[in-house]
Amino acid sequence: MDIAVWNSIFVAAAYFLYFAVILTTIFVVILDNRSPVKTMAWILVLFFLPLAGLILYIFFGRSTRKERLISRKGYARLSKRPMAAYQAQLSVGGEHGKQRLMDFFNRVNNALPFAGNKVTVYTDAVSMLSDLLKAIHQAQHHIHMEFYIFEDDAVGRLVRDALIDRARAGIKVRVLYDDVGCWKVPHDFYEQMLCEGIEALSFLKVRFPQFTSKVNYRNHRKIVVVDGNVGFIGGMNLAERYVKGLGKGVWRDTHVRLEGKAVYGLQTAFLTDWYAIDRTLLTSEAYFPKIPVQGRVLAQIVTSDPVGEWRDIMQGLMMAICGARRYFYVQTPYFLPSEEIMAALQTAALAGVDVRIMLPKRGDSWLIHKGSLSYLSEMMKAGVKIYLYKKGFLHSKLMVCDDVLSTVGSTNMDFRSFEHNFEANAFFYDKETALALREIFLADQKDCILLSARVWEKRSWKNKVTESVVRLFAPLL
């Protein structure tokens, strides 16, 4: 046979092998038994973009929900200290509705509710950073810090230098940063911390080819614990844009400082992540000191991850939405809800609950923002009120319900937060905190446009088609 025939045979074999791999991948996706929406999204990608789709699936598609980064035995040993402290205090009571949610988080997430906490709420990065730096300066034993983004800019260097100063004073400092979230940060930035005695580790380091599937599962948590009795949690990262904003607009975010036994929950979350990466189990009593009553707030630190059996925070939010009687307010920068959350919000609105969702008028990601806009017509049709924040970029992840339940944390109302990221939220079960967060929502509402269903439907066909096409891939964004 001549060269032309051999070339034809080689090309035919290559095509056969290529399509066999694609069909096998589609078969694997189907057997994974995910939600039909997500399965169809991957099949569409693999069918219409075979080569790109296969690469995307290798990096972002493989499920790790059945894997475990930490053993049950290791977690039991780690949670022994806060568990003992919790059992030593009086039992936590409450109304039946919120007691059910607390019990749910306790059962599926090992999240213990703690009474006697003081909560300080921040709506701008300047005030949060000011108090964070004060707490760092006052540290006497240890500082534990975990952020999705820890930039090498004016803000990042300010915090880094403060940590170095305390490390030189003999304070034990541990830092966790997300490997993908900090990809653009020079290695020297963290190397300087290491040289000063700070233990700085990246979470799920992505190196080819061993951990390509891990690029999709990121640690989105923002947690700080100082001396085991002061903690911070919310939506703010350590980067200059959180102070200066994007372009001409402000960066609107929400963060909280906790003082009281709820810090045990933050400590447990950090030490669990530390063990998952460093395999060092830290259970010293010094990390869970005795804490007197600091306030009147009942709080619970809840985490979620892509490797557990359940989608803890998403399922808890479903319970909260379905349990709402008067109102349920949501602030989120991205709105790509799962079918379950979307149905819960629509059902609550149809039942007469005042459901309000606040989104940024301009997003920081064109693709995700277009996907978010595709859900708004269905929401408004059910009676959900949509507010578009026009003062800048809204990055806040805040929810408040019926003056009794509220939450602040890192969880966005989208597929990525619910299914792919490691997230952490503080849930509060008291009227005072709920009213404070409700007032924050209503104050932001003054800087919003209330979307009209009639006007919204008049937007151009180009926008409608773009939004609908992007929505097909919403489960993958």
UniProtKB/TrEMBL annotation:
<keyword id="KW-1003">Cell membrane</keyword>
<keyword id="KW-0677">Repeat</keyword>
<dbReference type="InterPro" id="IPR001736">
    <property type="entry name" value="PLipase_D/transphosphatidylase"/>
</dbReference>
<feature type="domain" description="PLD phosphodiesterase">
    <location>
        <begin position="215"/>
        <end position="242"/>
    </location>
</feature>
<keyword id="KW-1208">Phospholipid metabolism</keyword>
<keyword id="KW-0808">Transferase</keyword>
<feature type="active site">
    <location>
        <position position="402"/>
    </location>
</feature>
<keyword id="KW-0444">Lipid biosynthesis</keyword>
<protein>
    <recommendedName>
        <fullName>Cardiolipin synthase</fullName>
        <ecNumber>2.7.8.-</ecNumber>
    </recommendedName>
</protein>
<feature type="transmembrane region" description="Helical">
    <location>
        <begin position="6"/>
        <end position="29"/>
    </location>
</feature>
<dbReference type="Pfam" id="PF13091">
    <property type="entry name" value="PLDc_2"/>
</dbReference>
<comment type="function">
    <text>Catalyzes the reversible phosphatidyl group transfer from one phosphatidylglycerol molecule to another to form cardiolipin (CL) (diphosphatidylglycerol) and glycerol.</text>
</comment>
<feature type="active site">
    <location>
        <position position="395"/>
    </location>
</feature>
<keyword id="KW-0594">Phospholipid biosynthesis</keyword>
<dbReference type="Pfam" id="PF13396">
    <property type="entry name" value="PLDc_N"/>
</dbReference>
<dbReference type="InterPro" id="IPR030874">
    <property type="entry name" value="Cardiolipin_synth_Firmi"/>
</dbReference>
<feature type="active site">
    <location>
        <position position="227"/>
    </location>
</feature>
<feature type="transmembrane region" description="Helical">
    <location>
        <begin position="41"/>
        <end position="60"/>
    </location>
</feature>
<feature type="domain" description="PLD phosphodiesterase">
    <location>
        <begin position="390"/>
        <end position="417"/>
    </location>
</feature>
<dbReference type="InterPro" id="IPR025202">
    <property type="entry name" value="PLD-like_dom"/>
</dbReference>
<keyword id="KW-0472">Membrane</keyword>
<dbReference type="InterPro" id="IPR022924">
    <property type="entry name" value="Cardiolipin_synthase"/>
</dbReference>
<comment type="similarity">
    <text>Belongs to the phospholipase D family. Cardiolipin synthase subfamily.</text>
</comment>
<feature type="active site">
    <location>
        <position position="222"/>
    </location>
</feature>
<keyword id="KW-0443">Lipid metabolism</keyword>
<feature type="active site">
    <location>
        <position position="397"/>
    </location>
</feature>
<dbReference type="InterPro" id="IPR027379">
    <property type="entry name" value="CLS_N"/>
</dbReference>
<keyword id="KW-0812">Transmembrane</keyword>
<feature type="active site">
    <location>
        <position position="220"/>
    </location>
</feature>
<keyword id="KW-1133">Transmembrane helix</keyword>
